[in-house]
Amino acid sequence: MACSRTTAGNVFVFVGALFHATAMFTPWWIITPVVYYGLWQFCSRLTESVSCQSISLDLSADIVTDSMKASQAMASLGLIMTGLAVLFTILNVCRSMKLKVAGGCSICAGILVLIGVAIFGVSRNSLGLSSALSYAFGLEAAAGLVLCIAGGMQVS
């Protein structure tokens, strides 16, 4: 019985991990006609060519803000917790008492991801990009929600 109850939660952990990893490393969080970027990469479209570079301290201060660093940190911590949730899920499938650890990790991961999404979403206004959010931003938000739901299913 306990195994069938948490099967959906186990599946949701893997779906949330896939969503988070995809969104975190995709450079299409914000798209404008001239530039697009995500947490780790900034790209500009010059005529027909696209020039991309890693977001680091080398870029202009307009993009590498404290809020961007905070979003990167939350996403990275969320990825670590997601990895732990996946690991504990694999190791403890159908062991309801030990699966609660995986559920706790998944909830923590989801909360960290959602905090990063909130920070990024609020900070885009300071760059004058209030309406330029793209699909990867939405995928990251969905990942946070799915991870929280998965954790709730595993803990219950």
What characteristics describe this protein?
11% strand; 4 strands; Butyryl-CoA Dehydrogenase, subunit A, domain 3; 156 residues; alpha+beta
Account of the protein in words:
This protein is of the alpha+beta class and 156 residues long. It has helices spanning 2-24, 66-91, 96-123, 135-155, and strands at residues 30-31, 35-37, 41-46, 49-54. The chain contains four helices and four strands. A four-stranded antiparallel β-sheet has the order 1-2-3-4, with no helix packed on it. Helix 2 runs antiparallel to helix 3. The longest helix has 28 residues, at 96-123.
Offer a concise description of the structure.
The protein is an alpha+beta fold and 156 residues long. Helix content is 63%, strand content 11%.
CATH topology, what is it called? Butyryl-CoA Dehydrogenase, subunit A, domain 3
Estimated share of beta-strand residues: 5-15%
- Number of self-contained structural domains: 1
Per CATH, the architecture is Up-down Bundle
Structural topology:
Elements: H1 2-24, E1 30-31, E2 35-37, E3 41-46, E4 49-54, H2 66-91, H3 96-123, H4 135-155
Helix pairs in contact: 1-2, 1-3, 1-4, 2-3, 3-4
